[in-house]
Design a protein that fits this description.
Layout (H helix, E strand, L loop, with lengths): L30 H22 L3 E3 L10 H4 L2 E14 L4 E14 L5 H10 L3 E7 L1 H5 L3 E2 L5 H21 L4 E5 L7 H16 L5 E5 L7 H8 L8 H9 L5 E5 L17 E7 L9 H11 L8 E5 L8 H28 L10
Parallel strand pairs: 1-4, 3-5, 4-6, 6-7, 7-8, 8-9, 9-10
Antiparallel strand pairs: 2-3
The protein binds zinc ion (ZN).
The site of zinc ion has 6 residues, from loops.
Length: 355
């Protein structure tokens, strides 16, 4: 099937589970109620995606407060009680970050509960996201390893441990979120991709990396405004990603200043094309989505295009996000109709002599 659909990862949480409209919400339940609430919200997220016609569904990241810290909570060797202020993503934000004070080790499984619950309740392909090693290393302070690369590789080992277990849980796609990949371009080629390779080592399921210019929050919008008319950061890293063992690359396309011609540098990869803008409440029309897919088809073979959101939808209003899911499903369906006929032209019986 052409243009299967998926989401970058997160969906807003119901207001009975966590504070709405926030990137970093406080939970509204505790203890066993919280555990049950996370699972209930996971089932809702799956149902909403299925009804919208999303083909590769996710847990909507309903069980984690934040995409990096949701993983770090399960890692030994990190001190959360004495956070320090650090500039992250090349000093774009100041954040209070936890400190690595000892050897990193997983306390146990990280996403087993929600992955298994999701697997038990959908027949569709299932994707689970994990933060990438470079992005994690840019979101903690180090007082143990004394070397960013060494620490990133240690995180990559833990990610690999959890990824293998997720694969055994029946997860079809494991995606690593690496927003740091368009901040530290030289390091991506130097060790970022190697760290990802460590994280996917031995996996047989589909692997993906999501790179992005971030959620639609003010710090990101200001930063994007400083990047000029054409965002060509990817020109430096796409050739290296094309050579990598990661199968899919997720990028933003709609309303983005990333020149789509750069996508031709991702030769051989499936491209998860962002056709839903998470930085505006305006809901896309199916026709707009078809237009973006049509543009991307100039640079990526249509068999390699997956229709996706630009980024996570966690901080959005719930009703807007639900409407955008429906638009994503409808847009991809319309694109299938619109572009399926192209390929039929060349095999029209009339072109065969005597037919
Ligand atoms: Zn993103």
């Amino acid at each position: 099937m052409l243009f299967p659909t998926t989401i970058a990862g997160s969906l807003p949480k119901p207001s009975w589970l966590a504070e709405p409209d926030k990137l970093w919400p406080q939970w509204r339940l505790q203890g066993d109620d919280l555990a049950q609430g996370k699972l209930d919200a996971t089932l809702l997220a799956i149902k909403l995606q299925e009804d919208a016609g999303i083909d590769i569904v996710g847990d909507g990241e309903q069980s984690r407060q934040h995409f990096v810290h949701g993983f770090l909570e399960f890692v030994d060797g990190i001190d959360f009680s004495h956070k320090v202020e650090m500039g992250i993503r090349g000093d774009r934000y100041k954040a209070m970050v936890p400190v690595v004070r000892g050897e990193l080790k997983l306390k146990g499984r990280v996403h087993q509960t929600e992955a298994r619950a999701a697997r038990a309740h959908t027949q569709r392909k299932l994707k689970i996201t994990l933060p990438g090693p470079m992005t994690i290393s840019d979101t903690v302070a180090d007082e143990h390893y004394g070397d960013k690369i060494k620490m990133a590789m240690a995180f990559a080992g833990l990610l690999n441990q959890e990824a293998k277990a997720l694969e055994a849980d029946g997860v079809d796609v494991i995606q690593f979120d690496e927003p740091a990949f368009n901040v530290f371009m030289t390091e991506v080629q130097g060790w970022g991709i190697e760290a990802l390779h460590r994280a996917i080592d031995g996996l047989k399921c589909t692997t993906a990396v999501h790179i992005c210019y971030g959620y639609g929050i003010k710090a990101n919008i200001d930063w994007k405004n400083s990047l000029g008319n054409e965002w060509k950061q990817y020109e430096e890293i796409f050739p290296a990603l094309a050579k990598s063992r990661i199968k899919q690359v997720s990028i933003e396309a709609i309303n983005s200043r990333v020149p789509l011609r750069l996508l031709s540098l991702l030769d051989g990869k499936d491209v998860l094309v962002g056709v839903i803008d998470v930085a505006t409440d305006k809901v896309e029309t199916p026709e707009q989505i078809v237009q973006v897919i049509g543009e991307v088809m100039k640079y990526v073979p249509k068999e390699r295009i997956v229709a996706c959101t630009n980024c996570g939808m966690a901080p959005m209003h719930r009703d807007i996000s639900a409407a955008k899911l429906v638009a994503l499903g409808a847009g991809a369906a319309l694109a299938r109709k619109t572009f399926a006929s192209d390929s039929l032209i060349s095999i029209k019986p009339g072109h065969v002599p005597g037919a």
